[in-house]
């Protein structure tokens, strides 16, 4: 039986690039699902803008990953032809949009990490990653500002908006720790000055989240447990549905263009 | 969409480049000034239009009554000497 699926020989650098690329693509895809369904026209466009920033970051990163892979694959091959188990995104970004509050909580948690992460990555010894970071950090700064302003208004809004936002925070909080996880391969890149240790972003993440939650009158859950596994391809059931949506056309009609 | 009706309306002005005035580009709904600025950025500067954005609460604008159109504006129609069409403006003057 023939298959169009691909797997990559993941060197430490390629693995790092795929993690960042998959985070960006899946988060961007989730946000794009709001297109035409936003709570108001202004926010519909705002979410689509953020989605496009994420997909743009994913494209640059996939393009670099394809170069590192060296087999002549393209960014599209990496997005459309890897199965669930090959995806390296964290579980947070694949969580469903839920109500608007869940989307905003997910975005604040992701951006509170991604924004300082990309700012730190502008000093990467890898010139391609440094260039991608320089573009991304301006975008993530806005994503954080926009989602944090919404979180404050939802949390400190009506009793219903407060309740829904707190519920979303309780649901998504256990997924936030995975953002700051890394492994031995990534530690090697950190020593070489190519990567930033995600754990080193923790203080900035904690400070941002604490400040926003305080203003939003929300309470960070105690979180006795932490969810992870995305970085090694152990995903929640949601990613399969996302990829079914995302990859259907290229899987049914390999190489189709228009 | 009933909730949207309780969200205030804002008028958006964008300056496209240095030296030119802010121009009215449209309106939008937002809960407050901060969110209005962000929405203006997202809705009206998607194609690199702006260097600066103003938002003004729509209800802060006092408008002339369309019914007064003739009283207010008709009398100027006969005063063609107010138009600077009798002068040649040198190219160097630029925006005037």
Can you walk through the features of this model?
- The complex is a heterodimer of chains A (258) and B (96).
- Chain A has 258 residues and is mostly helical.
- Chain A has a single domain (12-252), classed as Ferritin, core subunit, four-helix bundle (Ferritin), CATH 1.20.1260.10.
- In chain A, 64% of the residues lie in helices and 0% in strands.
- Chain A starts with 11 loop residues before the first helix and ends in a 6-residue tail after the last helix.
- Chain B has a domain at 2-63: Roll (Ubiquitin-like (UB roll)), CATH 3.10.20.
- The A-B interface holds A 39-43, 45-46, 49, 142, 145-146, 149-150, 153 and B 1, 3-4, 7, 28-32, 34-35, 38-39, 41-43, 46.
- Chain A: One of its GO terms (biological process) is phenylacetate catabolic process.
- Chain A: This is Phenylacetate-CoA oxygenase subunit PaaI.
- Chain B: InterPro entries: PaaB, PaaB_sf.
- Chain B: It comes from Methylobacterium oryzihabitans.
Strand content of chain B: 15-25%
At the fold tier of CATH, the topology name of chain A is: Ferritin
Distance between the termini of chain B: 45 Å
Radius of gyration of chain B: 19 Å
Low-confidence sequence ranges of chain B: none
- The helix content of chain A, as a percent range, equals 55-70%
Uncertain residue segments of chain A: none
Largest sheet of chain A: none
Proper CATH architecture of the domain at 2-63 in chain B = Roll
Which two protein chains have the largest interface (Cβ within 8 Å of the partner's Cβ), and how many residues from each? A-B, 14 and 17 residues
Strand content of chain A: under 5%
Distance between the termini of chain A: 27 Å
Morphology call of chain A: globular
Global geometry of chain B: flat
Element-level helix/strand string of chain B = EEHEH
Protein name (chain A): Phenylacetate-CoA oxygenase subunit PaaI
Organism (chain A): Methylobacterium oryzihabitans
Pfam families (chain A): PaaA_PaaC (PF05138)
InterPro entries (chain B): PaaB, PaaB_sf
């Amino acid at each position: 039986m023939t298959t169009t699926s691909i797997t990559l020989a993941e060197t430490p650098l390629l693995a790092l690039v795929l993690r960042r690329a998959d985070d960006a693509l899946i988060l961007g895809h989730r946000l794009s699902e709001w297109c035409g369904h936003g709570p108001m026209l202004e926010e519909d466009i705002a979410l689509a803008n953020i989605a496009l920033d994420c997909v743009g970051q994913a494209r640059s990163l996939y393009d670099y990953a394809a170069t590192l892979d060296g087999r002549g694959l393209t960014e599209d091959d990496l997005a459309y032809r890897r199965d669930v188990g090959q995806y390296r995104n964290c579980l947070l970004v694949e969580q469903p949009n839920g109500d608007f509050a869940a989307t905003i909580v997910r975005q604040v948690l992701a951006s509170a990490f991604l924004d300082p992460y990309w700012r730190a990555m502008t000093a990467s010894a890898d010139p391609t990653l440094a260039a991608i970071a320089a573009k991304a950090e301006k975008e993530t700064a806005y994503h954080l500002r926009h989602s944090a302003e919404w979180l404050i208004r939802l949390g400190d809004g009506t009793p219903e908006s407060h309740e829904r936002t707190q519920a979303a925070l309780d649901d998504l909080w256990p997924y936030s720790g995975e953002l700051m996880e890394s492994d031995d391969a990534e530690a090697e890149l950190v020593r070489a000055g190519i990567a930033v240790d995600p754990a080193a972003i923790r203080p900035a993440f904690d400070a941002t989240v604490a400040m926003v939650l305080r203003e939003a009158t929300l309470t960070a859950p105690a979180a006795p447990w932490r969810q992870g596994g995305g970085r090694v391809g152990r995903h929640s059931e949601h990613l399969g549905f996302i990829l079914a949506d995302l990859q259907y056309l290229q899987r049914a009609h390999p190489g189709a263009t228009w | 969409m009933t909730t949207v009706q309780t969200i205030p309306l804002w008028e958006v002005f964008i300056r496209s480049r240095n030296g030119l005035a802010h121009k009215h580009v449209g309106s939008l709904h937002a809960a407050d000034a901060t969110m209005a600025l962000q929405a203006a950025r997202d809705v009206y500067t998607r194609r690199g239009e702006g260097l600066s954005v103003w938002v003004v609460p729509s209800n802060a604008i006092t408008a002339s009554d369309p019914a007064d159109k003739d009283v207010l504006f008709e009398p100027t129609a006969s005063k063609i000497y107010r138009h600077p069409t009798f002068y040649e403006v040198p190219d160097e003057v630029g925006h005037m």
